[in-house]
């Protein structure tokens, strides 16, 4: 069951954790490489701020981005800014998202994201929560997948398992955590069923493209290659 208000509160808490962690950096650290290929930490921070505004657009019925080129140009423009500018932008854009998310509206309405993807408006706060949590990890500043809230990790595994369900490149795959939680995904490719087991953090890392799956136990075949998100 989606709790729109609770998800908005979770986004705010995640944003505050991010702001506290980033505030401990300096200008030099912002220019250093993140864990995302080709992006500095400044690129990650710029993307997070612009994503907040993009999701405001979604909630208010406008296109998420003017174009893919404009999205990329905005990130490149904002990435080299000093730390204080990034912090202010993250705070202000986060507040704009919070206000848009809390505004009275039909939560069941359909909204459009990038590349023609649609979803219910009530799921947009969780999508923002994903952005804040995973990109906090991508900064490489001491916040790891193991540090994510347990309820977030389980919901994100749910989300990604559903995303890859039936995918033509992924064989039938059974996912399990070491404490017994299970999911199924894939099923569109030949082969399988493949059983993949590990910690929740390692499963999430593999599904989200943040880990190579080397820590997972695989039975019934090779670890499936997942398509990019």
From TrEMBL:
Coiled-coil region: none
Superkingdom of the source species: Bacteria
Keyword presence, Hydrolase: no
Keyword field: Isomerase
Domain Mycothiol-dependent maleylpyruvate isomerase metal-binding: 12-139
Molecular function per GO: isomerase activity
Residue span(s) of domain MDMPI C-terminal: 147-227
Protein name listed in UniProt: Maleylpyruvate isomerase family mycothiol-dependent enzyme
């Amino acid at each position: 069951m989606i709790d729109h208000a609770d998800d908005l509160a979770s986004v705010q808490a995640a944003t505050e954790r991010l702001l506290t962690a980033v505030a401990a950096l300096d200008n030099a650290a912002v220019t250093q490489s993140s864990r995302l290929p080709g992006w500095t930490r400044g690129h990650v921070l710029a993307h997070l701020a612009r994503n907040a505004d993009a999701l405001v657009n979604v909630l208010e019925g406008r296109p998420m981005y003017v174009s893919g080129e404009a999205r990329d140009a905005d990130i490149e423009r904002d990435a080299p800014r000093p730390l204080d500018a990034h912090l202010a932008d993250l705070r202000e854009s986060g507040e704009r998202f919070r206000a848009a998310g809390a505004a009275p509206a039909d939560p069941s309405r359909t909204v459009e994201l990038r590349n023609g993807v649609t979803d219910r408006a009530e799921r947009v706060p969780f999508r923002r929560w994903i952005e804040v949590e995973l990109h906090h990890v991508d900064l490489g500043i001491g916040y790891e997948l193991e540090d994510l809230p347990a309820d977030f990790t389980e919901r994100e595994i749910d989300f990604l398992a559903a995303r890859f369900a039936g995918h033509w490149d992924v064989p039938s795959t059974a996912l399990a955590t070491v404490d017994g939680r299970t999911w199924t995904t894939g099923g569109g490719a030949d082969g399988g069923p493949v059983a993949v087991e590990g910690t929740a953090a390692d499963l999430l890392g593999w599904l989200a493209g943040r880990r190579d799956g080397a820590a997972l136990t695989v039975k019934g075949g090779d670890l499936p290659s997942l398509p990019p998100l």
